[in-house]
Design brief:
The structure is a homotrimer.
Chain A lengths: L6 E10 L3 H11 L6 E4 L3 E2 L4 E2 L10 E11 L5 E11 L6 E9 L2 H19 L3 E12 L4 E10 L6
Parallel strand pairs in A: 1-4, 2-5
Antiparallel strand pairs in A: 1-9, 3-7, 5-9, 6-7, 6-8
């Protein structure tokens, strides 16, 4: 891409909705990314990227995003979505993002993300310099969604 | 993206094929978007975008597209895909796209899209200025596909 | 896109992993595309594109990629992923990419890809000038992944 990714920001949200797609839309809004276009990517933090708090984004922006989401229509079920990133010692090398979604609470999801990141660095022969996990869970009332995302941002995405 | 989305165009198509992937390819061709690269997005119409008739597109263009599709190998089954968009009163704000696919005819799908768009605007506190739904259904002979799409276009995508 | 796709490169890989997502990550690494961001596309080779050997790619690059992948947690199962492209006589026209994943060995997958490409050209009224299929299979030990991909590359993706 001529797109120049210089920032990454993580977020998570959960919500109910009238349909599963509305629950997803509402969870995106709760996470602060409901008015942009997510383009799903697998799942690398480019080198030299600044990790920032989610900024205000330009409506409609096309934003490459690694995300996990789950919707459920079973009242009482607890659902979880989690993402995490790990960055290497050498800032000239890329980081890795891992995603997880499933039933259950966020504690198990956070542990799973951590293990996946550790394996990803082990196989690359790299040492983790910094690791963060973002997870959210949601207990379904009628139709619910949990979602966690890491957006890969360029200057032109900022509002 | 440095991509500058200035137009959006909706389309729909349905077809049979020798395999499910060929049925999908044939439905894309029937819809006039069989020779471009769809990049799936969720699902916002950027502000100030012109809604146009699907133009002739440059072969191989990488086009962010919100779409719904369904394939079926059950002869006699009727399958439907639908997309719709709603735009707000304020042209400086973004619109929303919703997608649906499933069994059944297009009438129920169109109604569902409309309800989803109404919820999406209600939760955003916006009023719908314009809403359009595009749906297609297909009764399977052997292997069929129905698909509906809204492409987010830039000048450089035009043939 | 202002992205200018001038090259396409195919690759395939397979691996075990501690989780299905790590198996996928490890298969990407085995295929030489584990440190880039794949953006899934369907599935056209733009006109005038050079087919090249997979080059060294810039870590974190956002690369539109047509791919097939499958993971399995059933020890002993053989899984296959395959992609293929066909190019037309007229280099000013686009080629087509087809993907397949499933159980079984690569021989059946390769044949299926070939048949899908032949149908895709028949319906377009084009003659195949060149066709190549890339397939890989993997017999699962604990948690395995097979993946095959065609990357659509621009100059700025090269390391």
């Amino acid at each position: 891409m001529t797109r120049n990714v210089t920032m990454a920001a993580a977020t998570a949200g959960h919500a109910e909705g009238g349909t599963t797609l509305n629950a997803f839309d509402n969870a995106l809004l709760a996470a602060g990314i409901g008015n942009i276009n997510l383009m799903k990517v697998s799942s690398i933090v480019p080198p030299e990227v600044s990790i920032i708090e989610l900024p205000k984004l330009k409506p409609g922006a096309l934003v490459p995003t690694a995300y996990a989401s789950i919707t459920s229509e079973r009242p009482g079920e607890t659902i979880t979505a989690a993402v995490g990133y790990a960055l290497p010692d050498d800032p000239g090398k890329n980081g890795v993002i891992m995603e997880f979604h499933g039933s259950g609470t966020r504690v198990a999801a956070e542990e799973k993300i951590q293990q996946m990141l550790e394996e990803a660095f082990r196989v690359r022969g790299e040492v983790i310099h910094e690791m963060r996990v973002f997870a959210v869970d949601h207990t379904v009332e009628r139709i619910g969604c949990a979602l966690a995302a890491i957006t890969l941002l360029a200057e032109e995405d900022l509002a």
